[in-house]
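Weekly structure sync, notes
Attendees: PL (lead), two postdocs, one rotation student
Agenda item 3: pending single-chain targets
PL asked that the sequence for the first pending target be pasted directly into the notes so everyone works from the same version. It is reproduced below exactly as submitted, 155 residues in total.
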Amino acid sequence: FSAKMMICLLLMAVVFVPSQSSAESLAVSVYSDNPTEDISFEDLVKIFKLEKSHWVHDGKIYLLMHEASSKEQQMILRTIYRMTAKDLKKFWLTKIYKGEIPSFPKTVASNESLRRFVEQVPNAIGIIPSQDAGEDVKVLKVDGKLPGDEGYKLM
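Predicted structure, written out during the meeting:
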């Protein structure tokens, strides 16, 4: 390759590679008719730790999780739980042992399974890659920001 050709290829790579913020953002997905539009990051953490169990508009929150080995669950562990998969398992076992929860949260095998479940269950909440959210679920703002916005916390 000539130097000009190499420079052109590098410029094309920079222009056509999606930014990390859009490619790696996770979306907080809920049932399309859920009246909630925005959630604080603090409340999101409480929901995912099962410390907050009801929506403001009433109704028990139904939390969906990814399998422990998934890329999405690894991102959730890092951003929301701030713990390892092993520590999260201990966290759930402690809650079960203390009688705070009856069982582990429901786990789904794929982003499509999570999205389909959320689109059919009015009080469900889950996190999927923003590009997989689709139009059949509502994506909540987190602290006033949507996936891809500068300062969005779920990346």
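Discussion points:
- Residues 8-22 have pLDDT under 50 and may be disordered.
- Helices lie at 3-16, 20-23, 41-48, 71-81, 85-97, 111-120.
Action: rotation student to compare against the earlier draft before next sync.
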